[in-house]
Specification:
By secondary structure, the chain is an alpha+beta fold. It folds into two domains: about 10-45 and about 230-360, no CATH class; about 45-225, no CATH class. The chain is about 55% helix and about 15% strand. The chain is built from ten helices and eleven strands. The strands form three sheets. Strands 5-9-6-8-7 form a five-stranded mixed beta sheet. The protein has a four-stranded antiparallel beta sheet with strand order 2-10-1-11. Helix 2 packs antiparallel against helix 7 (about 225-265). It is elongated and about 95 Å long. About 30% of the residues are buried.
Length: about 375
């Protein structure tokens, strides 16, 4: 292996290079930290997808006899591009759950007037479910939520034991779905709310169409759940971002100090390179290749450690408990890239600049 090779220094100085790689390994751990932050969104992901596809329209108090609501309901039912499901005017809560970070999160639910409506909506949402045993007054939940509570099909959930449950409910179905939504079937003769789906619209586009059709009718159209979720979790990302910058600066100082000590001992070596004709640009390139080689090895080692950890902790701990730590998240990727860049780039520039000025005649 030639002395100018990127891995020559690493091979010949395993101990020193190992110290640097160990420090650079910590930048990869920010990927894991970002996954923990984004795991909060994982629990809401399906609920937000369903909320995007299904808008909820409800009567408001100023429409005392619900005349506007029922007139608007008929208008929507006459639109062939829309699907309308009547639901009770009374809202039902879901079951709260414990997230990956260990604290309790809120609950959400969807209500249907009949099993037939639930089945039709599930098919449109792509939810695979056996609803053959579902009856009026029953609830349906995902296997992940069932594992959190140790529940199975046929069990009864009662308000005296389970938070937010309304009345006494039998579990009529457990679906293989990774949502944390509780689905109710509750028939009503006087619906004051309705779920509305479109054959070709979702999210804000669906709400905009409903708002256009509403005109002067006194009804309330909900906002996509993602709007509220983003607002609630924005502080998490802000605090995490500040933490990344702070930790990266500390790592940058430590890594630069360690590498500085190693390169000071090599000043004569780089002076010789200058004496035999290497340009400053080539010296910069050698320093950059060496530092990037150590960084690459640290990243590869970090990736193996992180994904092995994710696999083991999910399979042995989180999944059996009805939880999950994502293998990938944008927050984790951006955190790692930002941290690694804040550490590596200044180090390359400082060491390259210092070594490109080495002069063998000074020794």
């Amino acid at each position: 292996m030639k002395p100018m090779s990127a891995f020559y220094y690493v091979k010949e100085n395993k101990g020193r290079a190992g110290i640097v790689m160990f420090l650079l390994f910590f930048t990869t751990l920010l990927y894991l930290a970002g996954n923990y932050i984004d795991s909060n969104y994982y629990y809401w992901k399906r609920a937000m997808e369903y909320s995007d596809r299904v808008a909820t329209v409800s009567a408001i108090s100023s429409d005392e006899e619900q005349k506007d609501f029922y007139a608007f309901r008929e208008k929507l039912k006459s639109d062939e591009s829309l699907i309308v499901y009547d639901i009770s005017g009374y809202g039902y809560s879901g079951l709260p759950w414990i997230c990956t970070m260990g604290f309790e999160m809120g609950s959400t639910s969807m209500i249907f007037d009949s099993v037939e409506d639930m089945k039709d909506c599930f098919e449109r949402l792509g939810i695979k479910a056996d609803l053959s045993d579902m009856k009026n007054g029953n609830v349906c939940l995902s296997s992940a939520l069932a594992r959190q509570y140790g529940l199975k099909k046929g069990d009864v959930v009662d308000a005296s034991v389970y938070k937010n449950i309304t009345g006494r409910r039998k579990i009529g179905a457990i679906i293989e779905d990774d949502s944390y939504v509780l689905f109710y079937v509750e028939h009503t003769d006087t619906p004051f709310r309705m779920h509305v789906m479109s054959k070709n619209l979702s999210g804000q586009a669906l709400r905009d169409k409903l708002a256009e059709l509403r005109g002067d009718f006194k009804v309330h159209i909900d906002q996509p759940m993602s709007v509220g979720i983003e607002e609630q979790f924005a502080p998490f990302k802000l605090i995490f971002g500040a933490g990344i910058v702070l930790l990266s600066l500390v790592l940058a100082v430590v890594v630069n100090s360690v590498i500085t000590g190693q390169y000071i001992a090599r000043t004569y070596e780089f002076g010789v390179y200058r004496a035999i004709g290497l340009t400053k640009r080539e010296i910069y390139g050698k320093c950059a290749r060496e530092i990037l080689a150590m960084d690459l090895l640290a990243i590869l080692f970090g990736a193996v450690v992180i994904f092995l950890f994710l696999f083991l902790i999910n399979e042995l701990y989180y999944i059996p408990a009805g939880r999950f730590l994502p293998y990938y998240s944008n927050t984790g990727l951006y955190a790692f890239l930002a941290s690694n860049a804040l550490v590596i780039l200044p180090t390359i520039l400082l060491k390259g600049r210092s070594m490109s000025r080495a002069d063998v005649t000074e020794f």
